[in-house]
Amino acid sequence: xxxxxxxxxxxxxxxxxxxxxxxxxxxxxxxxxxxxxxxxxxxxxxxxxxxxxxxxxxxxxxxxxxxxxxxxxxxxxxxxxxxxxxxxxxxxxxxxxxxxxxxxxxxxxxxxxxxxxxxxxxxxxxxxxxxxxxxxxxxxxxxxxxxxxxxxxxxxxxxxxxxxxxxxxxxxxxxxxxxxxxxxxxxxxxxxxxxxxxxxxxxxxxxxxxxxxxxxxxxxxxxxxxxxxxxxxxxxxxxxxxxxxxxxxxxxxxxxxxxxxxxxxxxxxxxxxxxxxxxxxxxxxxxxxxxxxxxxxxxxxxxxxxxxxxxxxxxxxxxxxxxxxxxxxxxxxxxxxxxxxxxxxxxxxxxxxxxxxxxxxxxxxxxxxxxxxxxxxxxx
Length: 380
Description:
The protein is mainly beta. The chain contains one helix and 24 strands. It has an 18-stranded mixed beta sheet that branches. A hairpin with a 2-residue loop joins strand 8 and strand 9 (132-143). The protein is globular, with a radius of gyration of 26 Å. Mean pLDDT is 88; it is low at 350-359.
């Protein structure tokens, strides 16, 4: 039995003053709209009853999940809004043999604003041979808009974001499959894992530029992703390395009306390595990621179709940790984004976020950073 109950609250008070910079005297602004106190409260109660008997062919999990969000303040339309989400769920894990596991699940939800469908899922694990595991899964999804996406108004010198009361809930379907093959010797292990996936999302909620500097949350009618990935992991006594590549296709909604590709594809490459110095206990780590060029299409003001792209970029992080004083103290240091990637070129219109001007570049990171951490472990 596992029960969790929590309450979290956040308050933001805003007061505006006129200040005399000579005498330093200040007076509150008389306009009430320049003063505001906003509250965000979240209640959550979750309970789970489950069995996990390794020798039993049948185990189960059942439970409930209750949440209530409430926002109050002048920046919330109507001064106060709340939305509740109450669900019960259950799943069975059936293992007719030690090499086959079948796990169906079902979740029923009542949302105080949106009609929520039944959410089924199915996971299958098959181990046809030693060192080989096949996994297949299907899941349906549902997400009601959050209160901030529906009603919250966020306007300051850098933002102009307005909630959208007409948002529809997201619904989705996900399918995936993977094969894991592991071989090992006396001092090493090698794992290969190819996989494929597809996501079908209707009414995806996203933040978009709707007019000039005004941003709001909108529903995308159709959102699809398909892709494949391959990873290899090698571990030895003192070294661990992993390399992976993926190729992801994003559905191009303009293909429904124009003679363009139905999907646009983006490659991605990741590599990480960790080496332990056996004579001292120090550990060196490096992480590298390459995100390929993302093509796309956009409509111009004159109705013409234009092809553009988001440029590719590389990220590199390096770190080291050294134990000191009989491992009672650990010193860690390193650098992130060592290639100093800040902005990348984008020739797709409307790609700027709520924090940008929607120009010819997209922000990726604030640049190269370095860190140093000292951790002291006390034995009492």
